[in-house]
Design brief:
By secondary structure, the chain is α/β, with parallel strands linked by helices. The chain has 13 helices and six strands. It has two domains: 5-98, 434 Repressor (Amino-terminal Domain) (Orthogonal Bundle); 110-299, Endonuclease, Chain A. A six-stranded mixed β-sheet has the order 3-2-1-4-5-6, sandwiched between helices.
């Protein structure tokens, strides 16, 4: 069976404009391979045998959670009837690019493995919606504030390690002002802004930064004030990522103390979408939020 035209055009588009680095390329390649397998009526077990592996390995490949060996991709394409040399080379080229390290690889010594996926998804996202309870969102933190946050979780780390973690966060923020930066829609609980993390000087600088960021055309800020009472997402922070690439589903990112969850099942994502919509409806709109930040800055 030959590869379908939409697969070919998607692969060519990604090779021409590989946004999101290897993380996104792995997910998209895995999606194509899964569709090819399913269209042929081949089980994961049979596909695993074809590459000298297991059904679990096929599942990880199709979810984009591991790197690809060109030999495995070539054998799967043969199994799925993709025999045209040009089509095969496009898939193999995508596999090679998917194995290239992202810019964040240089920070692998201070970066947990579960964060790598988020960095790739952020770079590929067209819209990022986030709600934070305890801290200012990482994409909006100043270096001084980020340092104070990092010290909370890594009190025993060396100064050099702390600085590398802060530099990683600052590098991550560059996507907001890049040529294809996403739209960021952030809801921040008032508690995160009232908590004097790092001291008054650090908080004053952080609020000043939020006021500057609020002027960016691709950033919408909302504060969820104490006055509105309970919130639908009282359980913790939420991040929703949406993409223009049709082979990438909306994804919910839930960060935990030592790990993170990535949800992409439609029912789960839609449930979090409803929660986020309720949060945005309850929180102060962007213009009132700017006024709140100005008043807060005057208090500090």
């Amino acid at each position: 069976m030959a590869a379908q035209p939409e697969y070919d055009s998607s692969v060519r588009r990604l090779l021409a404009q590989p946004r999101g680095g290897p993380t996104v390329l792995r997910i998209v390649l895995g999606t194509h391979l899964r569709r090819l397998r399913e269209s042929c009526g081949i089980t994961r077990e049979a596909a695993g045998e074809a590459i000298r592996g297991s059904h679990a390995k096929i599942s990880r490949l199709e979810l984009g959670r591991v790197g690809y060996k060109e030999r495995d991709v070539a054998d799967l394409l043969t199994l799925y009837g993709v025999l045209d040399p040009e089509q095969r080379e496009e898939f193999l080229t995508l596999a090679r690019h998917a194995n290239n390290p992202g810019w964040w690889h240089q920070y692998s010594d201070v970066m947990p493995s579960w964060l790598e996926t988020l960095l790739g998804l952020e770079e590929a996202a067209s819209v990022i919606r986030t709600y934070e309870v305890q801290f200012v969102p990482g994409l909006l933190q100043t270096a001084e504030y980020a340092r104070a946050v990092t010290l909370l979780g890594h009190a025993q780390a060396s100064e050099a390690e702390i600085e590398r973690r802060v530099r990683l966060r600052m590098r991550r923020q560059e996507l907001l002002t890049g040529p294809h930066g996403p739209k960021l829609w952030a809801v921040i609980d008032e508690a995160a802004l009232r908590r004097p993390l790092g001291g008054p000087g650090v908080m004053r600088g952080q609020v000043e930064h939020l006021l500057k960021v609020a002027e960016l055309p691709n950033v919408t800020l909302q504060v969820a004030p104490f006055a509105i009472g309970g919130l639908a997402a009282a359980g913790g922070p939420i991040t929703l990522l949406r993409f223009t690439e049709p082979d990438l589903p909306d994804i919910v990112y839930l960060e935990q103390l030592t790990s993170a969850l990535y949800l992409d099942k439609r029912a789960e994502v839609e449930a979090y979408m409803v929660v986020m919509d309720r949060l945005c409806a309850a929180a102060d709109p962007h213009d009132r939020t700017v006024g709140f930040l100005r008043r807060l800055h005057a208090e500090l």
